[in-house]
Design goal:
This protein is an alpha/beta fold. The protein has a single domain (3-207), classed as TIM Barrel (Alpha-Beta Barrel). 44% of the residues lie in helices and 15% in strands. The chain has 10 helices and 8 strands. The strands form 3 sheets. Strands 3-2-1-8 form a 4-stranded parallel sheet, with helices on both faces. A two-stranded parallel sheet has the order 4-5. Strands 6-7 form a two-stranded parallel sheet. The radius of gyration is 16 Å and the shape is globular. The model has no long low-confidence stretch (mean pLDDT 97).
């Protein structure tokens, strides 16, 4: 199963911000215990790159990718460290071209028809929609699904426990992204049981939204 397919099956891509490397494996374990086998470790902190390397080399069986990639250098370094997919907040042609050339799954942030069209020229049909709550959320994606019927989105920003069912039920949503099930604060405070519980709740909501009991 490929990385993008695995994201779709899981239904959620946790955006994980790690301030300290020592918490990387515990966070990954908490996600797995809650039935979530995907994590996007961002490069917003100094610990991000080393955390990717540690989780990728742990043999835990979790699909680990890199997020908040805003340069080709960051992209290359993260993939060398073990990142299995790349997520960018916007459309960066150099990053997309490199990933496509190397066969690395990439979900660039695209919220306009122009950006979506650019992604399609590279054969990319699963896109990050960020920040979803600012750029129109479900209503915007529904409108875009008219001319771009083959495209699916991973909306991130403004998605949480209160509306995950609504998002997942939409046919143009591949999965949802978010940090609410694995917040930086909970990681820092060692609330790993809480993270597992939130993951379990999210997975139940996803199954219900998809009609899978």
């Amino acid at each position: 199963m490929g990385a993008l397919e695995k994201m779709g099956v899981c239904g959620i891509v946790p955006v994980v911000v790690l301030d300290e490397l020592k918490n990387a494996l515990s966070a990954a374990g908490a996600l797995l215990a809650g039935g979530v086998d995907v994590m996007e470790i961002t490069l917003r902190t100094k610990a991000g790159l080393d955390a990717i390397r540690e989780v990728a080399g742990s043999g835990m069986g979790i699909l680990v990718g890199v997020g908040t990639v805003i340069s080709l250098e960051q992209c290359k370094t993260a993939v060398e460290a073990g990142a299995q997919f790349v997520v960018t907040p916007g459309f960066d042609r150099s990053v997309v071209e490199w990933c496509v050339d190397k066969g690395v799954p990439v979900t660039p942030g695209c919220v306009t028809p122009t950006e979506i069209t650019m992604a399609l020229t590279y054969g990319i049909k699963i896109l990050k929609f960020f920040p979803a709550n600012i750029y129109g959320g479900l209503s915007a994606m529904k409108a875009l699904s008219g001319p771009f019927g083959d495209v699916k989105y991973i909306p991130t920003g403004g998605v949480g426990a209160e509306n995950i069912r609504e998002y997942i039920a939409a046919p143009y949503v591949h999965a949802v992204g978010g940090s609410w099930i694995c917040t930086a604060q909970d990681i820092k405070e060692g609330n790993f049981a809480k993270i597992t519980s939130l993951c379990n709740e999210a997975r139940i909501a996803i199954r219900e939204a998809r009609g899978v009991i």
